[in-house]
Design a protein that fits this description.
The chain has three domains: 53 residues, RNA-binding S4 domain (Structural Genomics Hypothetical 15.5 Kd Protein In mrcA-pckA Intergenic Region, Chain A, Roll), CATH 3.10.290; 82 residues, Alpha-Beta Plaits, CATH 3.30.70.580; 81 residues, Alpha-Beta Plaits. It is α+β, with helices and mostly antiparallel strands. The mean pLDDT is 92. 21% of the residues lie in helices and 31% in strands. The two termini are 17 Å apart. It contains six helices and 17 strands. The chain is elongated. Strands 7, 8, 9, 10, 13, 14, 15, 16 and 17 form a nine-stranded mixed beta sheet that branches. Strands 3-2-5-6 form a four-stranded antiparallel beta sheet. A two-stranded antiparallel ribbon has the order 1-4.
Amino acid sequence: MTNETERLQKVMARAGVASRRASEKLILAGKVQVNGAVVTELGIKVGPADLVTVNGEALEREKQVYYLFYKPRGVISAASDDKGRKVVVDYFKDVPERLYPVGRLDYDTSGLLVMTNDGELANKLMHPRYKIDKTYIAKVEGIPDNEAFKKLRLGVLIDHKKTAPAKAHLLSAERAKKTAVISLTIHEGRYHQVKKMLEAVGYPVQKLRRESYGFLTLAGLNAGSYRKLTQDEVQRLKQ
């Protein structure tokens, strides 16, 4: 936890009391106390030493934690699954904090996911305006020609909307098997985007892995393993 003061509704939302909007309603309704005094204004800021109670119950503040996880294929990017399939939080049984993934990777896609309980940072990282580069390594059917790469770099039409320009290049080709491995870097996060882009230029994806997220990479990790982000890495993400 930081030593900074933060808006009360933000602290409440992060502690899992309610969404920030719903937390504001609780404050305005006089349901929240700070250090024994009822608070009904939204501008109040609190620090780690302040005692916050909601409906008479003390707020439990979790320590903020940040992990870099190498998601294997066949795992859901969620905290739970109604079909009983394996989810990413299953790999963090020894971590006491409630974690959730920043964004998502498809069930059959492997690669880098940031896991945290810092909702504020997660929302910022997922916001389109921050344009964080994400690099994917894809094994595709066929061997893409220069024309296909040119289209990817300029942007292709998927779901009636053109994608932003991407960085794309060939890593290797197996002429006998008629398959290739390519690198594709995008900053958008549309549904099935990489698969749809490659499908649109005529090279369906057989296998997909997210190799990097901004400055973070999978270096030193195997599928199913994770590591804590360093303080420096967390600061860089926040910036």
